Amino acid sequence: MKKFFILLIAITLLTPSVYAEITYSEHIAPILQRQCQSCHRQGEVAPFALTEYQDAKAWATEIAEYTNARLMPPWKPAEGYGHFKNERRLTEKEIQMITDWAEAGAPSGDLSKTPPNPTFNDGWILGKPDHIIEMPVEYEIEPEGEDEYRHFIIPTNFDTDMYVQAVDVQPGNRKTVHHVIVYLDVEGQARELDAKDPKPGYVTEGTGPGIDVVGTLGGWAPGLRPSVLPEGIGYLLPKGADIVLQVHYYRTGHTERDQSRVGLYFNKTAKTVPLKISQAINTEFVIPPGEEKYAVKASRHVKKDTYLLATMPHMHLLGRDMRMIAKTPTGNPIDLIWIQDWDFNWQDIYHYRKPIFLPAGTHISLVAHFDNSPANPANPHDPPIPVGWGDKTTDEMCIGFLYFVDAAEYKPVE
After folding, report:
1. How far apart (Å, rounded) are the C-alpha atoms in residues 218 and 227?
2. What number is the average pLDDT over the span 143-147?
3. pLDDT: is 404 or 14 the higher one?
4. What are the residue ranges spanned by the domains of the chain?
5. Each residue's pLDDT tens digit, 57-110
6. 13-51: b or e for each residue (b if 16 or more CB lie within 10 Å)?
7. CB-based contacts of 302: which residues, under 8 Å, 6+ apart?
8. Beta 261-266 vs 286-287: how paired, if at all?
9. CATH architecture of 276-406
10. CATH topology of 131-273 equal to that of 276-406?
11. Can you give the pLDDT at residue 219?
């Protein structure tokens, strides 16, 4: 009994000192620098900076709440379902340290011992691009009306085929830009449509580019950050191609202006394998009103030996979760990704740490669930209505994009 009371007293005495040991300078600053400051700094997408102690102290309670709820940092793939590069994920120990630090009053520690903040490239995340393309003029978006999908033509004038290893899309006005897609045109069809439209660029009857595109250089959506393809792999930019920049604009109730631009980073290797993009997709569905967990399935059959480099799940506001699994011809299942708490405002292309070999005959299956009930706070329809496939934000989509190369053309570096 005596030993028990001694142990109890020791624990009681130790408890306050645990909080005292967790300080901003020694424990919290390194976490924020590594996982938060890429967004939480001046001029970036986050609503406040976390680059100084006073910043962190002012938001300590909220930092603890959001990290405990796994809302921050915004990393959507569930652990154990795919292994990805640049994971923005805190450990249980880090989350507990943040909680203890906030509850202890956010002690500073010796601020002179705070590690220096990381250096970020000003403007371009990946550093100065090899080539910058930009909308030819600043475009004015009217305050009211339907969403606008406008396409701007930018000639490239390269005298040889180019391969692009990375793309950084910079929306000129994040208040009105919903997404950007970089299409490629080698037939001059986009120029013809541009000549018929009195405004800069052109729009189509639907929401697609209205031309026979020969490829893409990727794009941008909320939450997506630029990533670099492995050495020796690139997006093909054909000689003389026009870049068709599709910019989807929201109406904000105010006159807005935008002049988005794109930074291109070219491959430097002697031989480059073209990146290919496929998709598991379902366009034939209607989500009944009131359904809280409506399942939509899609699949894709792998015809050649393939190395899968990345995937990108995509849904709209009613999306709740999406899981993709590959099953090889021998029946071996491979979990590709599972987004268990879909958020339309945080989308990304998720690159695997190592390319995944998928032999010919592999079957890729996708299952997504949608919540079209009144209880869904993101539901844009009040009351709910049947919602099917469409390009508008208030429509829905069900796509699992697959980024890959033919195994016969590429051998990963071990």
Report:
1. 11
2. 90
3. 404
4. 2-113, 131-273, 276-406
5. 999 999 999 999 888 988 899 999 999 998 888 999 999 999 999 999 999 999
6. eeeeeeeebbbbbebbbebbbebbbbbbbeeeeeeebbb
7. 326, 358, 359, 360, 361, 362, 363, 364
8. unpaired
9. Sandwich (2.60)
10. yes
11. 87
Continuous H helices in 167-311 = 189-196
Give the position of tokens 């697959």: 402
Q: Would the pTM count as exceeding 0.85?
A: no
pLDDT in tens, 331-340: 999 999 999 9
H helices present in 106-250, as ranges: 189-196
User: Hey, which residues does 228 pair with through a beta bridge?
Assistant: 166
> Cβ(409)–Cβ(331) under 8 Å?
no
Write down the residue that tokens 């923005």 correspond to: 88
> What distance lies between CA 149 and its chain's CA centroid?
20
Question: What is 131-273's CATH number?
Answer: 2.60.120
Q: How far apart, in whole angstroms, are the C-alpha atoms of residue 269 and residue 60?
A: 46
Q: Which residues contact 257 (CB under 8 A, 6 or more apart)?
A: 138, 139, 140, 141, 172, 173
Structure tokens at 167: 């793309």
Q: Which single residue is written with the structure tokens 């208030």?
A: 394
Q: Is the pLDDT of residue 122 over 80?
A: no
- Tell me the C-alpha distance between 327 and 6, whole Å: 58
On the 0-12 / 13-18 / 19+ scale of CB atoms within 10 A, 305 is middle
pLDDT of residue 192 exceeding 90, the answer is yes
Cβ atoms within 10 Å, residue 144: 9
- The mean pLDDT value of the chain amounts to 90
Note the maximum CA span of the chain.
92
Written as six digits, the tokens of 207 are 């929401």
